[in-house]
Specification:
By secondary structure, the chain is α/β, with parallel strands linked by helices. It has helices spanning 15-25, 46-59, 78-95, 111-132, 147-157, 168-173, 178-185, 215-224, 250-264, and strands at 2-6, 29-33, 62-71, 99-103, 135-139, 162-167, 189-194, 230-233. It has an 8-stranded parallel beta barrel, surrounded by 7 helices. The model has no long low-confidence stretch (mean pLDDT 97).
């Protein structure tokens, strides 16, 4: 498996500095948070996109994915949601990234309505994704936090250009065991976001292995089934200013994941 980290852990950091962290600490890729306050977002010009892609290529670091904030199950018209997805897909294509992350965002709707809305939009967007060679990944999050929730959307979509992003915190908070999540998401799994927290009541990010999330079990089930994708450390520093700076944790985080991988081999 390859290791990456998300720029959510180093909010606003210029790309050259992000890439220096990746190369200095032995990470193969970076997940880019696509937001206007970040260096990379859909508002970049073609020249700026080409420059960003060239920086990654020169550093020998992969752009794992573009982490967008589109809520595919949200109430309202489909048009604006599909436009957001298309913009993210084009950005990922221009950067050479294989994945775009989207959220469910079903809110207070009924489960049936949220599922149908998300499946309809993702089914439509799948055509654009396929044409651009990028996969849309629905993250286990908010209204659809478990694998069982996500599969209610992904099953009806039934398209190879739409898959799942497994956020291990949300599936754990939803009461799902890693083996259950994997069984649900395996046919659709794009990559896995790892992290650690103190408890269900305190989700302040911690160093990997310092909290309660079942990281060893997640890696074990992935390894046992021969899954050979990406593990991406999503350290949510952007939302928790009191959290320790990510750069000083990167070495230990890589070592922790590498040890889990070797123990599960």
């Amino acid at each position: 498996m390859k290791l990456a980290f998300s720029t959510l852990g180093v909010p606003g950091l210029p790309l050259p500095d992000v890439l220096r962290l990746a190369t200095a600490h032995g990470y193969h890729g970076v997940e880019l948070r696509a937001h206007p306050e970040e260096p990379v977002h859909p508002g970049l010009s073609p020249a700026e996109r080409a420059d960003a892609a060239a920086l990654f290529k020169a550093a020998g670091v992969e752009v794992l994915g573009v982490a967008g904030y589109t809520r595919v199950a949200a109430p309202g018209d489909d048009g604006p949601v599909l436009e957001e997805i298309r913009a993210l897909l084009q950005l990922a294509h221009d950067l050479g990234a294989p994945f775009v992350r989207v959220f469910p965002g079903g809110g207070e709707q009924s489960r049936e309505e949220a599922d149908a809305t998300a499946a309809r939009r993702l089914g439509t967007a799948a055509k654009d994704a396929s044409a651009l060679g990028v996969r849309i990944l629905l993250e286990t999050h908010d209204s659809h936090r478990t694998g069982a929730d996500a599969i209610r959307v992904l099953g009806p979509v039934g398209h190879g250009s739409v898959g799942a992003l497994w956020d291990v915190m949300h599936t754990w908070l939803g009461g799902e065991q890693p083996s259950q999540t994997y069984a649900a998401l395996a046919p659709h799994l794009g990559y896995v976001q790892v992290k650690d927290i103190a408890s269900a009541d305190d989700t302040t990010p911690l160093a990997l292995g310092a909290g309660v999330l079942p990281l060893a079990e997640v890696v074990e089930v992935l390894s046992r089934h021969g899954w050979d994708g990406w593990l991406c450390w999503e350290y949510e520093k952007r939302w928790y200013e009191s959290a320790a700076p990510l750069p000083e944790l990167l070495d230990a985080g890589r070592e922790r994941l590498s040890r889990l991988l070797s123990e599960s081999a």
